[in-house]
Write a structure and sequence with these properties.
Length: 207
């Protein structure tokens, strides 16, 4: 049975943030708000939790998971980017974009696309998500909360609890945070490619 925390969307309560992070560290799977919609998250090193996300969303091995980061200081540890790409990402973070990047050897293979050796990274513009990341001190392994057969992510924390209360350890109610998933921008080639249109404005990345 999932716990349910109501956390203030602008001034997150430190006590609840600490409790949520403790759940993540102990291998728990959480649903939490971002600047696009609600997402599933777990500890970056937890293979069992990753497999649980795959089962909930019925994902295949080719799915790109996303590392949710507090800022760009963690970028170099997980992705290989040149100065041009770094500036491009910096100009659009925090924000509702997921960037597909070439992974470094620091990234566990299970988080990478099996053929392309890529991963997704993003910095959210959401106080609760940023507070979780700051308290945790490392990225959260994340996937959009889009259930099998759905096109859009779940957006109501009470619906999330009702639907997934036996598959999660925690649902964070952070209020309304959007109806769409992120815009996904593939930066692994010579030019940016919009891999998915979402709530982030794609115009800056289109030729």
């Amino acid at each position: 049975m999932a716990q349910f925390f109501s956390i203030h969307p602008e001034n997150p309560q430190g006590r609840l943030i600490s409790q949520a992070v403790d759940i993540v560290r102990r291998g728990g799977l959480i649903a939490y708000p971002t600047d696009s919609a609600y997402a599933l998250g777990c500890h970056i090193g937890d293979k069992f939790a990753l497999d649980r996300i795959r089962a909930i969303r019925q994902l295949d091995k080719s799915h790109n998971f996303t590392l949710m980061c507090r800022d760009l200081s963690e970028l170099a540890n997980y992705a290989r980017v040149d100065n041009t790409i770094f500036r491009l990402i910096k100009n659009h973070t925090p924000g509702a974009y997921t960037f597909i990047l070439n992974a470094t050897s620091e990234v566990p293979r299970r988080l990478q696309h099996p053929k392309r050796k890529t991963l997704g990274m993003r910095v959210p513009n959401n106080p609760i998500a940023l507070a979780l990341l700051e308290e945790l001190g490392e990225p959260i392994m994340t996937s959009s909360l889009i259930l099998p057969g759905d096109v859009e992510p779940l957006t109501d924390p009470y619906d999330i609890r009702e639907t997934l209360e036996h598959q999660l350890e925690l649902v964070i109610d952070g209020g309304f945070c959007g109806l769409e998933a992120t815009t996904v921008v593939d930066l692994t080639g010579d030019e940016p490619v919009i891999a998915r249109h979402g709530c982030g404005d794609p115009a800056p990345f289109e030729a």
